[in-house]
Structures are given as C-alpha cells and as structure tokens.
Amino acid sequence: MHEYLPILIVGAIIGVLTILFSGLWYYVKHKGQQVSLDRNMADMEIMRRLAKYAKPYWKQFVLVLGIMLLSIAYSLISPALVGRIEELIKGRFELSRLWTLVAVYAGMLIVSMVCTYLQSIILQKIGQKILSALRQDLFTHIQSLSHNQLNNIPVGKLVTRVANDTNAISMMFTNILVNMVKNVFILVGVLGAMLLLNYALTLMVLCFVPFLVLFTIIFRKLTRRAFRRVKDCTTDINTFLSENLSGIKITQVFNREHAKMDEFLEKSYRLQHARQQQMYVFGVFRPTVYMLYISSVMCLFYLGGRGYIHDSVFLGQSITSGTIVSFYLYISRFFDPIQMLAEQFNMLQSAFASAEKIFAVFDMKPELVDEPDAIELDHIEGEIEFKDVWFAYNPGEWVLKGVSFHVAPRQTVALVGATGSGKSTILSLICRNYDIQKGQILIDGIDIKHIKTSSLRRHFGQMLQDVFLFSGTIRSNIVLREDAFTDEQIWEACRYVNADRFIDKLDGGLDEVVRERGNNFSAGQRQLLSFARTIIHRPEVMILDEATANIDTETELLIQESLEKMKNIGTMLIVAHRLSTIQHADNIILLSHGEILEQGTHQQLLHQHGRYYKLYMLQYEQQERQEKLGA
Ligand SMILES: Nc1ncnc2c1ncn2[C@@H]1O[C@H](COP(=O)(O)OP(=O)(O)O)[C@@H](O)[C@H]1O
Ligand SMILES: [Mg+2]
Q1: Same-domain status, 531 and 395
Q2: 395 CA distance to ligand 1 centroid (A)?
Q3: 39, 124, 240, 396: which sits with the fewest CB atoms below 10 Å from its CB?
Q4: What is the pLDDT of residue 81?
C-alpha cells in the first residue's frame, strides 16, 4: 500500500485546492450578481462584424496559419528527438548518429524561430491596418453624429473608444486569435505524440486534465469581473481627464485644485485597485497550473521510474529511459497551452467587450441624414424664411414657439433679446445642427431638409462668440477647409476684416504658431481671425453670434468697421447685445422666451415705444453715465 503513498499525497493536495477554489467560485458567483457582466451582443454577432475588417487580409491569415503549423512541428517533434538522444547516450553510442540528431534538432529550432518571427511581422502589419481602418471608420462616424447626439456623450468616452478599445480589437487579430489556434494545435499534437509514445503515462497525465479544466473555469469567472472593472475605471479616468484638462484654468481660478485632485485620486485608486485584483487572480492561477504541472511531473518520475525498473509492459508498450525524458518535455508542452488558452480566452472576452462598445457607437444612427433625393446647391441667393418654427432640445420644453420671419437676399437682420430667449438656437437651426419639430425653414424657397447638409453649410459662414482655433498656424486656421488659397487671398481677407494690423506685428506673420484653442491670442484677435476665416470663403450667408461681446472698445471699432464692409458680401444675421452695433440693420427681430415680440427697423421700433424702445433707452442712459464717468 505504502508504495502508492506519494500519489495519494498529490491527490489530497489537489483535492483540497479544488474544494477551496470551488468555494471561492461560489462566493464570487453570488457576490457577482450585483455587477452586470453580460453583454447585449451575441459573440457570433460580434465575430461577424469584426470579420468584415479581417476579410481583406484573408490571404495573409492563411499564410500565417501555414507558417504557424511549421513552427508547431518543433514543439511536437523536439521532445521525441531528445528522448532518442538520451537512449543513444545510454545505449550503443554512435557519434555520427548523435551529430545527425543534434543537427535535426538545431535545424527545426531555427525554422521554428524564423517562422515565429515571420508570423509576428505579418500579423503586426495586418493588425495595424485593421486598427487604422477601424479608427478611421469610428472617427468618421462620430463626425457624422448630430449636435444633439454629441451633447449626450462625454468626450472622454469617445476618446477611450477611438484610442483604447480599437487597440484591444487589433490585439485580438494580431495576438489572441492566432495564438489560440496555435495552442489548440499544439495541445492536440502533443496529446497524439504522447499517446504514440506510451498510453499508460498519457492516461496518468490525463488524470490532471479535469482539475485543470475546473480551475480554468473558475479563473475565467474571476478574471472577467476584474477585466470589466479595469475597463470601466479606464473609461472613467479618461472622461474625467478630458473634461478637467480642458477646464483646468477654471479649476485654478476657483482654487479647486485640491477638490479635483481628490476626485482624481479616488478614480486613480479605483483603477489601481482593479488592476491589482486582476493581477491577484493571475497570481493565483499561474502557480496553481504550475503546481499541477509539477505534480504530474512527479507522478511521471515516480510511476515511470517504477515501470522502467520493473520493466512493466502495458498494451505491448514498455517504458524506456528515453520515454521518460520525452514525456517530461511533453508534459510541459501540454500544460503551457492550456494555461495560455485560459488567459487568451479572457483577453478575447475583453476584446469582445471593447468591440461591443465600439459597435454601440457605430449603431448610433446619425440623426441628420440627407434624404436620398436631397439636392446639391451650387449657389444660393441668401433668402431665408422661418415659417411657424417650433423647436425643443428636450421633448416638451419648447425653446422656439412658432417663430416666423423673412430675410431677403443680402439683407442684414439682427436678433436681439434677453439671454436664453433663443437667438443662438435660431442661428443653429438655419445650419441644420438640429432638426425642428414643427414648421419649415426655407433657404431660397427650398426646405433645408431637402438640401444636402454639407452643401447647405458650405454657403454659411458662422462666427460665434467663443472662437475655436485649432493648434496649427494662423494660415491653417484661416484656410481650414481643403480649398487652396494664395497668400495674397489670405492677406486680402485679413485686410478686409482689419486682422492684418495685428498679424503684421507678429514675428511669424501668417505662419505664427497657434497653440491649442488659440490661447496665445486675445479674444479680440481670435474674433478677427474667425472673421477672416469666414469671409475668405465668400459665404452667401454670414452668421454672427455675439461676436462683438466682451471685446475692448478699440477692437470693437475695428470689428464694427469690418462688419460694415462684410454687409456687402451677402446676407447677414447678427446677434448682438450692444444695440449700437445693429442700428443699421435692415430688420431687427426682438425675441422673448422663444417668441417674436417686435420686428422692424431701428427707427420703426423706436417709434413703437415698445420693448425695444425701453431696451435702447436703458443702454443709452448707461452709455451716457459711462461717458460722464470717463470724462
Ligand atoms: N444644447 C441644449 N440642450 C438643451 N437646452 C438648450 C441647449 N442649448 C440651449 N438650450 C436652452 O435653450 C434656450 C435658448 O438658448 P439660446 O438659444 O442659446 O439663447 P440665447 O438667446 O441666449 O442665445 C435656453 O433656455 C437654453 O437653456
Ligand atoms: Mg446665445
């Protein structure tokens, strides 16, 4: 009996571990119900959609598969070779035979290394191509979303999708899938080789497999949670960063650094914790598999050694010293792929989770799509008409309530009214940033819904209160769209809007560097640049939204002057707080809570002695007072 004691001890240890792990599994399974881990999309569906990206490279994938099979040959044959060498050394030694065996071994090793190298080069190339295709599609898609849809997704989330999640998917193509296939082949191959060598010892090794499978299943359960948590925490941090780095100056101005730091630390700590948990799980799993491996090796030496000494024969196979050496090597080649498969399966799950998130973005159908028969407008006169327009950003909360007005070509129309009365909204609707719920908006008598959005927007020049400059140069910010302009044209535009005076003084002139968001220029300068940017394209309709607010008097005069000139270019819609700016408009529309109260020319409205009159008197008195103070 006592000769089976070592086997019993090994069995007992594995048994205890099994009970421990099963307990852990049970615990996590019940705790895990609070966290939803399930995906909405079936694996097959995700595979099908991903396959679309891999399809153009199917030839390369087949090539990789071929190369991979070659490299596997080494794993399968080398243990048998080593076994042969051991028998050769022990038995009738022949130097020439040793040389042959060693040469074959070395040759296979080199072939396998070259194959592995080629395989990873090809895969990396494909992976990067797929990655960039996916990234481009995603970015294009995000750009096609409407303002309304974009308002509802944090920028950081989109950054994570484009930067991190696409990466996980490319990893899947380059690394995970191929290695999974490789490991399955190795596993099957090694099993076959072991069976050929010795059934009895193979049976012994197979006894360990159920435990391996059980541990792997438990491991998968645990890592899935960890992976999911790491992913959520990463998105969370990215969202926080992208928002707070943009607003960092506000944080500094309001002395909120500590509060923000605490918030960040908390998020950072959660990510750290999630990653640690992930590591713990791996930290338990890998040694467990290693322990099973060592146990099986010990059993091999014990049982195999006994079989060798007693010269026992099983189904006609006897155990030689070479068999034991080969088996020893095969066992490690048997356990490795199983462990790797488990880990790769997890990574695959994680890649699927990423894919699902990306596809969720793809599945957001752009709300503002052109009608199939939408027309292209080459040229417009610049006539604008609102017919009983009703609009709400959120259902039921009407921001515009039955707004109607008409702007003849080349007229200048001003919108005035208190903050929140709906002026910016009207301007936004003309460019079809949002779709209206009721009524009609007509450009040159054509409903804007029947016009291609890109074609519509090409005829508009928008100048908004907060000018967005991209990092680049003055030139790149003025030219913006792909059209090529000569320096002469750019300078002409700058002169037209009085931007030339300050650009002239810059060392770099048109090539002066513009930093992110144009933070190395004053608000007034940015505004003048945005004017130049707009008029260089000679838009038929110009839209100015409080473009003259918060600007010093000197710059305002410049802007005032350029506005006068710009009136000659086309139709102009202006929102301005200072009524002096818009006195000469052909029509002034006074809005209040999304409804038009009064409209007419400056003189007409003054004669009415209505709301406009009051507003004007208020500003007039204020100005008088300021002038007195100044004097
Ligand atoms: N993206 C948005 N989502 C929801 N409500 C909005 C949005 N933009 C503006 N609003 C609301 O619409 C109303 C009109 O805003 P707006 O047209 O910007 O006014 P203003 O006359 O000051 O330019 C305001 O009450 C504002 O709160
Ligand atoms: Mg506004």
Answers
A1: no
A2: 14
A3: 396
A4: 87
